[in-house]
Amino acid sequence: MAKIIFALLVGILLLVQSSGMALATAVSITGKAKVLNTDNSYLDFTSYNSSVTVDDATGNFSGYAFLEDVGWADFGESDNPSGPVDLDLSTGAVSGKAYVANTGAYLDFTNYNSSVALSLGSNNFSGYVFSEDVGWIDFTDTGVATATSLPDWFSLDNPGHESYTNSERPTFKWKGATDNSSLSKYSLEADNGDTNDFSIDNIPVSGTIENVQDRYLIHYDGFSDSDNTNDYISVYTKSSSVWNSDSNDGKLKEGKRSWTIKAHDSSGSVRSKTRTLFVDRTGPSMEITKINNSALADNLATLDTTPTIFGKLTDSLSGDKTENKVASGPKSVEVRVEKRNFLGLYDLQSLTTVNFTETYWSSTGVKITDNTQNISDKYSTFSFTPAEGLSLGTYRVTVIGKDNVNNASSATSFNLRITTLAEIPAEEKEIIEELEKEPETVVEVPIEEPQAGQNFLISIANTLGNIYWSVVSAARGTVGYIASFWQGYSNFVYDINQKSLAFIGGLFEISGRAVANSYDALAQKAPGAVSRAMLAVRYALQRSANTIAYLFRSATSAVANATSPAVTTLGNFAFRQKVKLLSIAEILFDKNPTVITGVKVAEVGKGYAVITWETNHYTKNNKVNYGESLSYGQDVLSQERARHHELRISDLKPNTEYFFEVMSQNKNYVYDAFHAFTTLEE
């Protein structure tokens, strides 16, 4: 009978081995862990006939170790009410409690911030465990280890832990176990949050050809050779009606997700490894903030051949729940510059990628140092300047941003004109259009003796000649010279006691045309951009002459002397032309921004105050915002173009503090705030 039983046992053993099933191995624990409070006693796993082992399939401890201060500690279940101590075969963490028989206390591997762990793939423990009898015990100090290394059965390869992807069907890849003889299968589990989890079971542990199923594809690398250290398995899910209705067709949802690979052995034991994955499928948003110092506007004109484009790319959090939302963060912007040709089509001039090196939290503006965090939206700012100057013409600029997983923003496009005065932007055109209007007041002057007209024409000719030779000596700032013409004429009508003016209107128009033509000839000989700018100004010069001529051709009554209202009106009109033309010159040729200086409370009374300030350009929309708090609430406005500004505030309360700011507009809108004054007492 005994022989029969023995034969049966042998047969069973042979059957197990032939079926590829492996028996778990108990791996011995050796070495000593020092008790820190005594500094000369140990938890001894080697001496005293200690017998602690760990099951390399389940991670369960068993047996006893001797703690020199209090006696035997049971790591298993024999005499341990809370046993066994457990080794997590995925992470190497040790948890559970070992029971001290003599005291009824525990070595607690779970609580008290205990931190004992085994480095998987090696045989060394590290960290501390808390003994309720003797305090902290150090597993690192003298070395506690497994007698042989526990096999790290497999390791996850891709996607990386806490990495970002924009794929809802990423390839899940892991390195196969070095020895897979004890394994029966792998399985894949994807955690999609509250709903729509999916899984794939019965993944063969090895193969040499692709395994194609309805729901997935399995690819094997390295299994065809004798080297079992380079064996990799990859799984890719496919769209299929075979998926369960709640499996999201085998796709990951956007947000914070996790994936787990489990290795199953023949005894039913499972070792699993999990990684977190951030799925970001939403593109960032692009904002162009300004070009040089000007706010973005389509068809914006500039004289700068290397304009700088400023912008901001924001990657917003996306996901199905607040705690799951993710943003991979801005990566780069692509700037495409195209020039319009004579057919109205656009030819590529340059294609440039600007990569971001710094990213910030939208909620705080603080620089991001750990991009695996998803506290709020993330943004980066950029600037782009063409490497080479752009020639004159119309350009289409297109900017597209990308985040770190290459989701793209919508394209932001705008037209930009590299121009001279010949192509004046809308705001500047408004100024010139005012020059073309008929005068508001017609000066009526009777025709008198030709001699008076001749004397006047000589004076005008001298003025025009001076302007012309000024242009010859300095070809830049041409608009300013037309303004000088108007200044000269303004001075002329104030200073000369001229009896008769009207009949020379036609002569003046001819004279103006002659100067314009001479100016045109000069411009033809000027180099490059200077020539184009001068030719553009010729139009304004001729219009100036025509406007003066119109005044005189319309004259029917006498101008008695230089102080008459009619002469004064002519002088004021001429001054206004000077201001308008200088405004054009500042907008087109002065690259400096408009700035405010010298803000003063020039005068204050019981119910009023006079505020003055200066600007470096002629500005309009000059305004004072004021009130009894910094929210202001009231204002006074002047539309007169000037560099010195003086506005009076009325109807104020006596003995009251008022706050104010001043504002002016030329090529840009500027302000100077946080000023105050107190009105006088009654």
UniProtKB/TrEMBL annotation:
CDD domains: FN3
InterPro entries tied to this protein: FN3_dom (IPR003961), Ig-like_fold (IPR013783), Purple_acid_Pase-like_N (IPR008963)
Signal sequence annotation: 1-24
Domain Fibronectin type-III per the UniProt entry, residue ranges: 595-682
Keywords in alphabetical order: Signal
GO molecular function, one term: acid phosphatase activity
Coiled coil: none
Annotated protein name in UniProt: Fibronectin type-III domain-containing protein
